[in-house]
């Protein structure tokens, strides 16, 4: 069956990483910035491997220069998500890629993103919530300001705090100041771990940053005691199978969907959910994720309904929003 119109909830989408290449090229030409080398001749993003992906990602972000650009970006990303049946989405917002280090500027950016989200809700029927996110490879000191930003903007729209970026930089505990501040402010907590790092990185993240969700978490499969702990503690994994298979994360052979551990994690009762991460970078959409999961593991409507329930249970929005989108 076609999964395009099947209603979906997505917890792990980087707003800048959702930027269609044509949108970024359009902004680059408006602003007379030459970033032609980050595109292939066919017009897709050009990179080799995860570290280079992060560089190309940051280069693409250089053309997002003001709140109005983020307003347009949000509309473009949500139109595409809604066209793939997404009715509820949580997106990572990285202040380091918008407005530099200035809290007053961030407020303007976040307000522009929120107003675009409201517009998209009315136009396309998709609800968006934001997770302010620090970037791990910028170091622990640079993580503090996004946490303060998250705490100060917490509300209907900003509901969580997280960390993305190069996972092998530092240890989770180095970032505990930022996560403690965000948790004390009442924000939902998530953190990328177990995409490139091993089970020890997931275990340390759980111990030191105390998230209710882990971004990716797929390397847990190498330590079954940890898998059982995730299941027992009800930690939800934001699994991004297409991203993992495209990049070869957690030791998965590039292109090999059958090597992805999501089915094994689920069989041991870990709460898993499905997301796209950075869809145009990995040639994916939520529709394609569902199609590949059906094709690879034989998942059907009952399976997808369970994954949607897991996502809404673990979502950081309030109960009324959950009810409205369920
Ligand atoms: N930022 C954008 N996509 C990411 C990913 N897959 N892992 C870590 N940081 C990211
Ligand atoms: Zn991610």
UniProtKB/TrEMBL annotation:
Gene3D superfamilies reported for this sequence: Metal-dependent hydrolases
GO molecular function terms noted in the UniProt entry: deaminase activity; hydrolase activity, acting on carbon-nitrogen (but not peptide) bonds, in cyclic amidines; metal ion binding
N-terminal signal peptide: none
Record CDD domains: ADA
Protein name according to UniProt: Adenosine deaminase
Taxonomic lineage from the root: Bacteria, Pseudomonadati, Pseudomonadota, Alphaproteobacteria, Rhodobacterales
Keyword Metal-binding tagged: yes
InterPro entries: A_deaminase_dom, Ado/ade_deaminase, Metal_Hydrolase
Segments forming domain Adenosine deaminase: 7-326
UniProt-listed Enzyme Commission number(s): 3.5.4.4
Organism: Pelagovum pacificum
Pfam families noted in UniProt: A_deaminase
PANTHER family associated with the record: ADENINE DEAMINASE
Cofactor: Zn(2+)
Keywords: Hydrolase, Metal-binding, Zinc
EC supergroup of this enzyme: hydrolase
Keyword check for Ion transport: no
Family, per entry: Belongs to the metallo-dependent hydrolases superfamily. Adenosine and AMP deaminases family.
